[in-house]
Design goal:
Blueprint: E1 12-21, H1 25-37, E2 43-56, E3 59-72
Antiparallel strand pairs: 1-3, 2-3
Length: 75
């Protein structure tokens, strides 16, 4: 039986960010994570929590993705 590695100890913060894209939900999520990563260090987990679209004149104008990001507090 494989020995389990203990989870690293620490304190993490979780925030929500929303990315927008003209092409896809995936692109919107990527933009959200990459933009947040420019000012937040040590991002650990990104979880898509909501996807929606902006509609104009009966057509999809933009894709939006809400992402919960966690990052570790520095000691």
């Amino acid at each position: 039986m494989a020995k389990k590695t203990p989870a690293p100890e620490g304190v993490y913060r979780v925030i929500d960010v929303v990315g927008s894209s003209d092409t896809s939900w995936e692109d919107a999520a990527r933009r959200a994570v990459e933009t947040a990563g420019k000012s937040l260090r040590d991002l650990r987990v990104a979880e898509v929590t909501k996807m929606d679209m902006r509609v104009e004149n009966g057509k999809v104008a933009a894709f939006r993705t809400r992402v919960s990001l966690s990052f570790k507090y520095e000691a």
